[in-house]
Structure formats: C-alpha cells, structure tokens
C-alpha cells in the first residue's frame, strides 16, 4: 500500500538506526555510554519542582488552561527578554507560550506556509527546522551555517534563483548541531538582507543560556526594527533542565505571533497550569539555577575535549550548546557518519549522533552530547582510545572491512 502523502516526506529517523543498535548492545550486556541524544540528564531545580507540587494541590489548576499561556507567564518571559537582551515586548501581543519550542516552531510553519512556498534553512540543522515546513507543504532550500561574511553570497544566490521567491529564513544560533554562535553584527546584516528581500526571519534561540566563553549569545531581536519581520523561539528545556515539561516561547512580530496563536487555539488548551505556574517562578528566579546548569555543561565540555584529544580524536571545543560537533577522524571519514556511529557502538560501547541525521552537509561529523557525567565521559574516551589503537591509523579500507566482517 502506498504511504500517505505526508509520511512519504518524513524519512525514517536516522537516529532510530543508532538507537536500535544501542538497544541490542545493551540487551547483550554492554554498558553503552550514551552521548547520542540531546536529552538533558540533569534534574530540574528543586524550587521549580516544589512550585509545581504546590500549584497542583489547588483544584482550580486542573481545568483547561489558556492556549497562549497564563498572563503571569507571558509577563515573566517579556521581563526575561528585557533583562537579558534589552528587548521590550508586549506580553499580550508579542509573547506566546508553546509546548516546548519544537511545537511552537512546527505550528508557526503550519500557520504561515502555503503549498510550494520556499523556505531558506541551514544545513546541517535540528530536523524540525526543515521538516516543520515540509510537513506544511513547503519546499526547503539549504543554506550554509557558518555565521560570518561567507554566509551572504550563497544566500543572495538562493534568493535570486528560487522560484517562487522564498518567504522565510531560518536561523539557529547557538546552533544545534554545529554549536556556531552568531554575533550581533551578523544579525544586523541578516535583518537588513531580509528586509530588502521581504523575508520573514524565524530564529531558534533554544541555547540562549548554554554558553561557555563569557559572552552571552545575542538575540536577533536586539537589532532595531527586527520585530517588523522576526519571531524568536526559546526553550526552558535546556536552560532550566526541564525537557520533559514541554515549555517554550515564541516572541516578536505581532502579526506572526497572532497567526501562531490562532492555529494553537484550535489545537491545544496550553500546558497544564501547574507547569505554567512553575515555569513562571523559574523565569522570575535570580538566575542561579541557570548559572549552575551552565557550569556543569562547561566542565563536561572541557573534560570531553581534553580526554578525547588525549585519546587521539581532536574535538573542537564548542563555545555554546550542549553538543560538540566532531569531525570524523580522517581514517574513518569515507565511511560516512552513520556507519562510523554504528562502529563506535559496536567497538567502543559509545553512542553518538550521526551528522547525516541533521542534513547531508553533516555527514563528515558526529554530534557528541554532554549528557553523561565527567566520569562517564572519561570512560568513553578510554574506550575510544583502545578502539583507535586496534584499528591503527590511516587505513580506511581495513576499518571498513573490519566493520563488514563483524
Ligand atoms: C535547536 C533546538 N531547538 C529546539 C529544540 C527543542 O526544544 P524544546 O524541548 O523546547 O521543544 C532543541 C532540542 O534539542 C534544539 O536543539
């Protein structure tokens, strides 16, 4: 039987193949160190959990909530933007709470896309950036991800040669998976370009607070006039270690926020009220929880870069996010990221995410998530060192045949 139209456009999740192999290895007794999925392992801070428990005891919170978020939550998000970025937002018209930023992004795509609309999207990138639009009938044109002057010539070509003309441009800095961070100057140039070409800009700022080198990543909304064309998504998942709570935000252009609000009003009644109450308390906190989360990821990053380097695998230190974007060691490069990831599970008991899962431009890298503690990261490095020693250096053909023989 033929696949449904939409399902045919959604390739099976590449990560599923790695997950299956991981499950098989675990079932066989292997202790797999899982640096694959971007699922934060840290507990949500106790005060936020306590606030949830307190709110849930009030039966009035058991009713349907408000789809766009309770007023106090939207005010808290507006206050965060003002404090952190100096960006003023009207909590009634320029802020909406979403069920995680992923849901917000996907439903924004649904709200603004007509069949055949062209969207400019980075490659490699977090899958919903492309597939949110593909599910909505849009067509993707890939962009480079490096946020510097080299970004603009290919962008200009893409706009010039797309028929019909693109409607929107996606940004995601700090980037998952590459961990590139954009500067304010870059955003200024992007906004000028987008205004000139009548493009909507959707910015995914899920890693606004996970940065390691002193300078907090800017918001594109800091650029004067950005609000005319731009919406930005943020998430509580990483910032407060609340991934399972499903709480995020879209803020910015009133017309776009209103379109998303309309679509969501048909789809959901908002997050469970106690979650919204606890999220409000988190955002109104003194920032110490955020600093704690950031410092744990930073220590893990330093251990990863140091121990993997000593094991013979040079991993560039990510300036932000909870991921390292690691070039596949040269002797394995030609096998591609999926086969290399499988090899690492089978031979080193370490799971990583194959770069191809983030787009074809990702196939020479794997993404290593900082979701195991320092001890386990060191253990992974020891195991990889042994694996690299058994495969020698330099002869890719041997390695491929070794993998095929298993
Ligand atoms: C870039 C990026 N955007 C969005 C998300 C999803 O976040 P949320 O849990 O808020 O849906 C992730 C999660 O990994 C991400 O890496």
From TrEMBL:
Keyword presence, Transferase: yes
Keyword tags: Aminotransferase, Transferase
SUPFAM superfamilies: PLP-dependent transferases
Cofactor(s) the protein needs: pyridoxal 5'-phosphate
GO MF term (any one): transaminase activity
EC number: 2.6.1.-
PROSITE patterns with a match to the protein in the record: AA_TRANSFER_CLASS_1
Pfam families, A to Z: Aminotran_1_2
Protein name in UniProt: Aminotransferase
Organism of derivation: Hoeflea marina
């Amino acid at each position: 039987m033929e696949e449904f139209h939409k399902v045919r456009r959604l390739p099976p999740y590449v990560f599923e193949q790695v997950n299956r192999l991981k499950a098989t290895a675990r079932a066989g007794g292997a202790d797999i160190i899982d640096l694959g999925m971007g699922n934060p392992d840290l507990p949500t801070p106790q005060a936020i959990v306590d606030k949830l428990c307190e709110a849930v005891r009030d039966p009035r919170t058991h009713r349907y909530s408000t789809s766009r978020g309770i007023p106090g939550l939207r005010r808290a998000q507006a206050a965060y933007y003002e404090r952190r970025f100096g960006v003023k937002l009207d909590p009634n018209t320029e802020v909406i709470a979403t069920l995680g930023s992923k849901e917000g992004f996907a439903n924004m795509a649904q709200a603004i896309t007509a069949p055949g609309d062209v969207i400019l999207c980075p490659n490699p990138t977090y899958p919903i950036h492309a597939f949110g639009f593909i599910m909505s009938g849009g067509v993707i044109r890939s962009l480079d991800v490096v946020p510097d002057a080299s970004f603009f010539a290919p962008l200009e070509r893409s706009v010039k040669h797309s028929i019909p003309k693109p409607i929107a441009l996606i940004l995601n800095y700090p980037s998952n998976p590459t961990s590139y961070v954009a500067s304010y100057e870059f955003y200024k140039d992007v906004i000028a370009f987008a205004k000139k070409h009548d493009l909507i800009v959707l910015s995914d700022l899920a890693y606004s607070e996970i940065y390691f080198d002193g300078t907090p990543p800017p918001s594109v909304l800091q650029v004067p006039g950005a609000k005319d064309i731009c919406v930005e998504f943020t998430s509580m998942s990483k910032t407060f270690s609340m991934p399972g709570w499903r709480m995020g935000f879209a803020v910015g252009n009133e017309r776009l926020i209103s379109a998303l609000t309309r679509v969501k009003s048909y789809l959901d009644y908002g997050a469970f009220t106690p979650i919204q109450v606890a999220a409000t308390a988190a955002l109104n906190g003194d920032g110490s929880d955020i600093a704690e989360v950031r410092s744990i990821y930073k220590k893990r990053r330093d251990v990863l870069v140091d121990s993997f380097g000593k094991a013979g695998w040079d991993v560039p230190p990510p300036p932000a996010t909870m991921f390292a974007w690691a070039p596949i060691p040269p002797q394995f490069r030609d096998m591609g990221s999926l086969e290399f990831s499988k090899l690492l599970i089978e031979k080193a008991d370490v799971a990583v995410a194959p770069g191809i899962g983030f787009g074809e431009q990702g196939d020479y890298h794997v993404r290593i998530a900082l979701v195991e503690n320092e001890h386990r990261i060191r253990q992974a490095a020891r195991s990889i060192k042994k694996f690299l020693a058994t495969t020698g250096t330099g002869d890719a053909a041997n390695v491929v045949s070794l993998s095929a023989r298993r």
